[in-house]
Amino acid sequence: MSDAAIKDALVRIAGPVVRSLGLEIWGVEITQTGRPVVRLFVEAPLAPEQAADGMLSQAAEGSPEEAPDPSAFSATIAQCEEISRRIGLALDVEDIFPQAYVLEVSTPGFNRLFFSPAQMRPYMGDMIEARMPSGFTPEGLDVARRVWRGRLTAVTEDAFVLAPATVSGSGEVTPENLPEVRIPWEATRRVARLYVFQQPARPGKGGSGRQRKRGDETRGGRERKRAPMPNEALDGLDI
Predict the structure, then answer these.
(1) Mean of per-residue pLDDT scores for the chain
(2) The most confident of 3-7, 41-45, 216-220, by mean pLDDT
(3) Which tens digits make up the pLDDT trace of 123-169?
(4) Which of 3, 52, 58, 185 is the most exposed place for a label (fewest CB within 10 A)?
(5) CA–CA distance, 200 with 208 (Å, rounded to integer)
(6) C-alpha distances in angstroms, 203 versus 197, 206, 208?
(7) Which residues, 6+ apart, have CB-to-CB distance to 64 below 8 Å?
(8) Distance of CA 35 to the CA centre of its chain
(9) Nearest to residue 91, comparing CAs of 2, 5, 10, 3?
């Protein structure tokens, strides 16, 4: 069975279970390195006022104390475990996988993958990383890259626009001397948000502090594995 067929079957089986818990399916990812790993991402629906207020946006890049509480808009570990338990048996009964596999259910977390341009709209102004299958040269530029990073400035039905920028090891975001680039969705291999927040200055160090990348330190970054592997927490996504 192809990856696309597996994803369709998983969405069909998991959909009613996820909706019964007041959640929605964010996306499905399959990796085939060694034992197949199927990741089902679930999320609480985003209220219109949250999107309008930019609740999930890091444009202001405040301190960690000012970061939004993910529990206000995220599924819980208990919910992820319940979904995994209820759909795991159904997957085995339908014999979708011809070999042993790992099922992981989690929320997308702060550093989240995107599965469509529409999912990116609440994250205007955030840092985005777009990985391409090969070197991609945006229209109007003579620069080819396999990875483009920058601030999200626009989203259409089939593309998005980034203002190129770099992120240092300490998390400092520096705009590049390049015009904005339009990236067609179909040209991408993997698109993800890079969550960055302002690190407070240490006492006696002065200055305004520096930024650093923040991993998925919330419930949304923990994934649960279903048998045949023992349950364990995972620290977010490898971006």
Answers:
(1) 78
(2) 41-45
(3) 999 999 999 998 889 888 888 999 999 999 999 999 999 999 999 87
(4) 52
(5) 7
(6) 18, 7, 11
(7) 197, 198, 199, 200, 214
(8) 22
(9) 10
